[in-house]
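Q: Can someone sanity-check these two? First one:
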Amino acid sequence: MPSRSAVLALLLLLAAATALFAPPLPNPGSADEQMLAIGRDVPGFGGLFVDARGGIHVYVLDPARDGGLAAKALGPRATVLDGDYRFDELLAWRYALRSLLSFDGVTTLDVDEARNRVVLGVEPSLGAEARAALATRLTATGIPAGAVVLADIGAVRELPADRATAAAVAPATVQGKFRPAPGGVQIVFSGRFVCTLGFNAVLGRDFGFVINDHCTEVRGEPDGTAYSQGIPGDGIIGSEVRDPSFITEGCPVDRRCRMSDSAFARYTKKNLGVLGRVARTTAQGDVEGSLRVSPPGSRFTVIGKAPDPLVGQQAHKVGRTTGWTAGEVVGTCVDANISTNDVTLFCQTFVAAGSGPGDSGSPVFARAGGTQARLMGILWGGGTHPVFGQLFIFSPLSAIEQELGALKVN
């Protein structure tokens, strides 16, 4: 008969294993939370995605048994697919694998709703020896081997703040001076670097704008970074007042983690910005769109916030470098390692569309008919995918508001 100490040790091991595979609660409103909510109504639910025509495709473990409930929850036109794993299982395994984000060559970690699998992204150049070591680590977790896919996904890069030069500014474009300033136009910080003003908002009693954390002087602390708009010497319009610190809970070894690449700047005068407006350029593109704003008052009207998008839905952005681009959402709630530093961002959204240096901070939104839009978040990075090509990456509103607080956007 085992000793009392042996039994206690076994119970502790079992408790640790249970904790390992029990995910924390996802962000309110996140794609993961939406999936878990559906799973509470549909037994055996394994995730869903949307096709180009807006059709819903849903995985369930037993289509004969669970397909009717899926159709009841999602509509009779939902296409039921044969899944191998429940979404809540995949999500728990994703959380359990977060420590692997400290492994050299790992780029992303995601529950891929279109594949009913956990996908661990690695750099295509990762050698055979390193891949074998990673596979050994995966086996040691006890997670079913078939549930995790290794995929070649290029390095995730933070879009650098472009250099500001007065000669490069075209006044009839999103690089020009706007009063009052809408989202999607150029801002300048440190007197020499340009990013994109995300969106105007009210945070508590402050009226200001949401920007990227990496478009501040010091990341993870409110240092009062000053912003001008248009050319570098155009006068200060606002300064940073909120910039959440990095988190340690669940963060891989030797990494600094956040839920969003966001900060908040307060306008020096309230009439310098306008709530609920994003600059609307003359043409949309996949990789590069128009920078021209014509007529000068052309705007998208923000009518509210969009839920975090699902795989297959469309997302648009307006930035000072590549203008108005749009594409299909190809990854939701992706944990992403930034290749050029030690920062890991949890639960980010990947879109198959173009972006470039200086687009950091671009407002991301869903079209809502005509010139109306619903905000989704702000862009901060880019990358490449072997199937989808060029990507832009953004922090969804659920993550931004978790860190900054509730925002009034219209």
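And here is the second, same format, sequence then tokens:
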Amino acid sequence: MDETAVGREQARALGEALRRAGIELNWLWLQSFRLGGELSEFEIEAYLHRALYLPPYQRDLLAQAANNLIDQLPPLRAPYSCELREPRSGA
């Protein structure tokens, strides 16, 4: 896979990860900025829509920012029935 194809696939996969985790673009931008990124929200959005090519360093910085945010989310799990029942009062 050539570098352009790698960049396009990385953008697609990043967008999918953000969507599945419910992470908004402004949070990705802020986290990437904290890590030393210099891209604007507009540039990140263009990249996610595969309208802007980014070099590997910038793509990996966005991946790191996204993974940091994903790692902070509570784990997804299915509830048990007892967790869904309202507690009895006065019993």
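A (reply): Looked at the second one. The chain has five helices and no strands. The chain has a mean pLDDT of 92.
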